[in-house]
Design a protein that fits this description.
Oligomer: single chain
Largest sheet: 8 strands, parallel, barrel
Strand order of the largest sheet: 1-2-3-4-5-6-8-9
Strand content: 15-25%
Number of helices: 13
Structural class: alpha/beta
Order of helices and strands: HEHHEHHHEHEHHEHEEHEHEH
Radius of gyration: 20 Å
Helix content: 40-55%
Number of strands: 9
Bound molecules: alpha-D-galactopyranose
Length: 343
Amino acid sequence: MKYGKAGIPSLKEVYADSFDFGTAVVANEVLDTDRMEFYKSQFNIFTYGNEMKPDSLINIAACKSAVRKTGDETAVEVKFDRCKPLLEWAAQNGVKVHGHTLIWHSQTPEQFFHEGYNSTSPLCSREVMLGRMENYIRQVLTWTEEHYPGVIVSWDVVNEAAADSGRQLRQSNWTKVVGEDFINRAFEYARKYAAPHVKLFYNDYNSEMTMKNLVIRDILSSLIADGTVDGYGFQSHYSTSSSLFYIGVAWDTVAKLTLNDGTPIRLRVSELDVGIPANTESNWKTQARFYEDLFEIYRKHADQIDAVHTWGTTDDLSWRRENYPLLFDGQSQPKLAFDAITD
Ligand code: GLA
């Protein structure tokens, strides 16, 4: 067996009665058939780490020539070559995909915000930017649904809009060009063009910080009033020194939000990893205990959780690989943390 280990429990099966269990993958992993077979034995929902972000989907050169040709500054051209492999594989293998992410301040070409798609030209007007936003969201949602019907079950519509300090939004090109309602407009367009079965999430990190938690709830309440949001994604990039107490409090406060139809807000763990300072046996044990306690919180809120996704599968491919934060080691063998949550 090249990846994984025979006879170990399967995360998606252990949690089948509670929520989907997912992971994030990048382009190279999807090309490795054996690796994907191993992932399929553990997970039933997948997210692309980078390949569905704006900088992967917006075709700046084509946008430029479209504006030049038509004179329409709101023209947006997209390309799907980078995100096709996972969608193709998911369709063939009957697994779900969570889309990540439509609107974000990061990994979005600077030119997207400028007249003529030239970063040296002035920023667009609010009207033009809203036109681009709507055209972008429409094309991404309709193309993916048309070519891979039913595969994408949910989307992060906006990622990381809350500021890291103060009761305010993060200042970004989006707030600068559109204004603070860019989040509401993104969800409005997403709702307009998403297939009815597709759930729309707001996604953010550090929701256990008191002030940021307030901002996140401000954002969610405003979207709930608009009737455009289904749920919140807790990114959940932790280390073993993170406060489980405050994480639990954050879950309790967000879970209390109710949608307009009276049902509780949907929740997801969108990017879970738990770093350790060094790869030692005693740290593995601490990490296993942390994961175990975290899953106590998830079990408590299980009826509101759509899915728990780890942000990657094996430590060697993690964005935080020097902190060994995942459930499988670099040889794709299950770690103590895996045992702790599958026992
Ligand atoms: C954030 C983003 C993810 C990813 C990680 C770093 O959490 O939401 O898409 O970029 O940072 O890997």
